[in-house]
């Protein structure tokens, strides 16, 4: 049995992406995890750790930091996009998992990356045996409501656009050297009822470590993300859709839209949970994902 620790992958244009590749090299299936905007590969740590036992079989797990996130190199101007994330994922699969069945799990922008992968590299899905779309969306993200009345949402979105412009001109390599001051906002925006303080702290630290110019660029890409048609490539592939009932970023109507496009998919709604389902509902996500394996 071969277990591979943290490592790097270099893309065709020279970007270095940090990854964690664990489990037997000859495992019958590889689960590939993609994290969300401003987050980290570590979003999936607990799910990846519990998956082999939950599945009752050997499983290889692969997770990586998107450009400008975690330990990965930042994207150059114009490349902090969902499209580029999908190309990076395709290259990673070609080098690290060139053959054999795979299961794809994407959280938030990670789920959108899987949709873009289906749009840009549909041939890869010939060997995809399962897909998990977690707290994600197929589009309509230009001006989210954040669970607020329209006047409040309009004010929030206006402030977010100002912040985006500020970040686009930032000179540093991180949003902030400290993350403690981000925790109240992260708690309100990303979590549901009674989150663990350690989870909020970890999420705030991932946001603080995000490359600010890339953070702004990805937000622009999220605003124009419209990939409902790309879901057609997932038809016939066992697919799980997960949503949090208290998710402010991608509320349940986004999951319902995906479920309507994929009528054979299984849709799970967790009342009281927010956007961070891999942390808030780790056991449930792990168990359901193990069923795909």
TrEMBL record:
Q: Which domain of life is it from?
A: Bacteria
UniProt signal peptide: none
- Give start and end of each AB hydrolase-1 domain: 32-281
UniProt entry keywords in alphabetical sequence: Hydrolase
One GO term in the molecular function aspect is: hydrolase activity
Keyword Zinc-finger assigned to the entry: answer is no
The record's SUPFAM superfamilies line, in alphabetical order, gives:
alpha/beta-Hydrolases
By its UniProt entry, which InterPro entries does this protein fall under? AB_hydrolase_1, AB_hydrolase_fold, Carboxylesterase_BioH
Q: What is this protein called?
A: Alpha/beta hydrolase
């Amino acid at each position: 049995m071969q277990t591979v620790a943290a490592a790097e992958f270099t893309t065709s244009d020279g970007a270095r992406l940090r990854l964690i590749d664990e489990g037997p090299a000859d495992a019958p299936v590889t689960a590939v995890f993609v994290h969300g905007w401003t987050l980290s590969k570590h979003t999936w740590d607990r799910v990846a750790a519990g998956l082999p036992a939950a599945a009752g079989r050997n499983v290889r797990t692969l997770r990586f930091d998107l450009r400008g996130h975690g330990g990965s190199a930042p994207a150059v101007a114009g490349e902090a996009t969902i499209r580029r994330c999908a190309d990076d994922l395709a290259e990673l699969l070609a080098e690290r998992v060139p053959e054999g069945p795979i299961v794809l799990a994407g959280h938030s922008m990670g789920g959108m990356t899987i949709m873009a992968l289906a749009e840009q590299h549909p041939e890869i899905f010939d060997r995809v045996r399962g897909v998990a779309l977690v707290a994600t969306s197929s589009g309509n993200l230009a001006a989210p409501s954040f669970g607020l009345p329209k006047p409040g949402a309009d004010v929030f979105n206006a402030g977010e656009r100002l912040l985006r412009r500020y970040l686009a001109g930032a000179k540093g390599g991180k949003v902030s050297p400290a993350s403690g001051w981000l925790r109240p906002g992260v708690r309100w925006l990303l979590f549901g009822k009674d989150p663990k303080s350690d989870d909020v702290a970890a999420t705030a630290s991932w946001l603080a470590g995000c490359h600010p110019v890339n953070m702004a660029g990805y937000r622009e890409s999220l605003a124009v993300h419209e990939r409902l048609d790309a879901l057609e490539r997932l038809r016939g592939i066992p697919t799980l859709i997960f949503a949090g009932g208290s998710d402010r970023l991608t509320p349940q109507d986004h999951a319902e839209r995906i479920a309507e496009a994929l009528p054979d998919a299984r849709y799970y709604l967790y009342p009281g949970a927010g956007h961070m389902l891999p942390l808030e509902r780790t056991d449930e996500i792990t168990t359901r994902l193990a069923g795909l394996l």
